[in-house]
């Protein structure tokens, strides 16, 4: 069973995504920020990371760069909903840094599932 790590500072999103993906047969871990997410990656075997971009502590771009910096080929799906308030859209940057897919919030659960299946 593939193991997915969801990193998002929004507890509701973490919980909804975790319940949904668990119900689809995935083993799901969650982390509230990039720093804690990177700790999970150090401690657990993970097949896919789904990370928010705009987070306190360590943001999603730093997560993508840290994963790629370790030379691992774990697929990463980057997501964000805060781009409307920013002068720059960071999701294309996440793709350049090594995310295999980017999703704009709000994300329909079936779109999340399709992205996860494609990434794995």
UniProtKB/TrEMBL annotation:
Modified residues (4-aspartylphosphate): 52
Top-rank taxon, per record: Bacteria
Transmembrane segments: none
MF GO annotations: DNA binding
Record InterPro entries: Bact_response_regulator (IPR050595), CheY-like_superfamily (IPR011006), Sig_transdc_resp-reg_receiver (IPR001789)
One example of a Gene Ontology biological process annotation: phosphorelay signal transduction system
Gene3D superfamilies recorded: 3.40.50.2300
Annotated ranges, domain Response regulatory: 3-120
Keywords assigned: DNA-binding, Phosphoprotein, Transcription, Transcription regulation, Two-component regulatory system
SMART domains: REC
SUPFAM superfamilies reported in the protein's UniProt record: CheY-like
Protein name as catalogued: Response regulator MprA
Organism of derivation: Pontiella desulfatans
Gene name of the encoded protein: mprA
């Amino acid at each position: 069973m593939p193991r997915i790590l969801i990193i998002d500072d929004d507890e509701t999103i973490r919980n909804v995504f975790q319940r949904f993906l668990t119900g689809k047969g995935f083993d799901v871990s969650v982390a509230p920020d990039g720093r804690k997410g990177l700790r999970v990656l150090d401690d657990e075997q993970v097949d896919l990371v789904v990370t928010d971009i705009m987070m306190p502590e360590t943001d999603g771009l730093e997560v993508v760069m840290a994963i790629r910096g370790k030379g691992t080929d774990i697929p990463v799906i980057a997501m964000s909903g805060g781009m409307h308030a920013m002068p720059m859209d960071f999701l294309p940057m996440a793709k350049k840094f090594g995310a295999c897919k980017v999703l704009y919030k709000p994300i329909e659960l079936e779109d999340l599932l399709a992205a996860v299946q494609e990434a794995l």
